[in-house]
Amino acid sequence: RLRQRDDVGDHAGVLGGGADLVRDGWYVGGVAGRMRQSIRRDTIHAVEPQFERNVVAGRVGLGKPLGDAVEFVVMRALDDRGSLPTDSLLRVTPAANTVFEARARKAVLDSGTTVHVEAALSRFDRNVAADAPTVSGLALGTRIERRSPRGEVGFAVDYTGGGFQSFGNSELAPDRIEGRLNGRRVLQEGRLRLGGAVGLRRDDISGT
Fold it and tell me: Is the pTM of this model over 0.85?
């Protein structure tokens, strides 16, 4: 869920760094940075002013890079109030978002099949300067992959609840569910590769 969408598509610049520590199957990592929101047109104003957003994230996990593993991730994004204009006519307000995520990966059968399970919870505050409740949202996903030297096939189902905010989304969206089936095949002793994917998505499944 943290990586589901284009996280920096609306940002003019990104500056930051991070590090990972690995020891005896355990790994701990962290990253911090600052992004500057780019000027862009919208349907209300000719331009949207620039402002800065601070982001910090960390993860801890146990397992193998390509094998069984369990991982927990937390991300906090907070707009810099000092970089926002004070003009009350502008709709930009300092927002904050916190996302908690748990992931698990398990190799089954002859280790050629891998099952992935993910769950994420977001708590989004549209205006940290106002006394308003945060909006919570839940996202769930599962993916099954079967790989062999001749190709692979995979199936995935994702559910995103209404109000879930991933890193980089600026608007709330209704709940939705989508399924995907993809495959890849190697032919002619590796000289030819064929691949494709098909999916189906349904929006506003709760009818709200």
Answer: no
